[in-house]
Structure formats: C-alpha cells, structure tokens
Amino acid sequence: MATVILFHSVRGLRSLERGAAERLSAAGHTVVTPDLYEGRVAGSADAGFALRDEIGWRSLCKRAERAVADLPASAVLGGFSMGAAVAASLWAKRPEAAGVLFLHSIAEIPANARSDVPVEVHLADPDVYEPTDEVAAWSAAAGETPIALEVFTYPGAGHLYTDPTRPDFDAEAARLTWSRVEHFLAAL
C-alpha cells in the first residue's frame, strides 16, 4: 500500500481532505494531510485566496517541505485545487515519488520528472479555475514529457465536485473519482 500526501485547497484543511484521508486509509494506505494554514480555515474561496496571500506562497511551500521531510521519498504527492500546485512544488525535490495525484487542478510538471511516473488528474469540465483551452494546452505539453498521464474530466461538475459540503458537489462524479483514485493507488 502507498503513503499518500494530500495537500488542502485554498480554503484550508477541512472535511473534504479529512474525508478523503479516511477513505484512502480504509483502503489500506497511509495518508498524511498537512495543515499549511496551521488551523485557519476560510469560509469562501476569496477568503482562502486572501489567507494564502497573507501567509505567502514561499512560506506555504516551506511548510509543505517540513511536513513531508520524514515521509518516504516514494510517497505519492497529491492535492486538492491549490494543493495540487503545492504537491507540484515538491515534485522536483522528490523525484522518487511513486505517483502524483492532482484533484480539481492542473499544475506544473518538473523538468526532472521521472520516466513513466504515473500522474492522475481529475477535473470538472468546464472548470472556472481551469479553462478548457488551458487544460488542453497543459495536456498536450504533458504528453511531450516522460510521465504516464491520465486526465479524467467530469462534464457538468463544479470545481470542488468531490466536496459534499459544497453546492457544486456531484455525487456520481465524486464516486467515479474516488473509484479511479483507489484503483490508481492500488496499482502503485
């Protein structure tokens, strides 16, 4: 079974991330959900962006590095929305990662990405934060890298469609996402 790191969205560590950790732990994985906001939670995306900016991107990435320092180099890097970018910021420094999991976002692929590292992406289609043309361009560029990429899109779902506390929750898309994520992790 895998060790999985899941970084939270811009709103902070909430029931979305805790529920995902419980689900994946029940499947036998070791799951870590670092709290980059140190207990603070935003009530809206705008408040989350303000909190992110208050802390600063460099500080968030340093907190993420400290949070994973004692975890195996092969730990799967994952994140929800903004958390995907945090995971990507660590990817270049942790090239031995067994896999990468981006939920609700795309993020930069490092130049030193290991050949055939499995990367799974789950996105709403369309997504207010990830426009279709940007996802298409990103997917084309990713196809030129040595990674083993799978991108899944969920038509009609809202941005954080796996979050049952949000109005954009889509039960069927969430069920399918978690089924695919569990299969992805079991295969590592």
TrEMBL record:
SUPFAM superfamilies noted in UniProt: alpha/beta-Hydrolases
Transmembrane regions listed in the UniProt entry = none
InterPro entries, per database record: AB_hydrolase_fold, Dienelactn_hydro, Dienelactone_hydrolase-like
Q: Which UniProt keywords apply?
A: Hydrolase, Plasmid
This protein is called what? Dienelactone hydrolase protein
Q: Where is the Dienelactone hydrolase domain?
A: 3-186
Is Hydrolase found in the keyword set? yes
What's the superkingdom here? Bacteria
One Pfam match, given by its short name, reads DLH
Taxonomy, top ranks, is: Bacteria, Pseudomonadati, Pseudomonadota, Alphaproteobacteria, Hyphomicrobiales
GO function terms (MF aspect): hydrolase activity
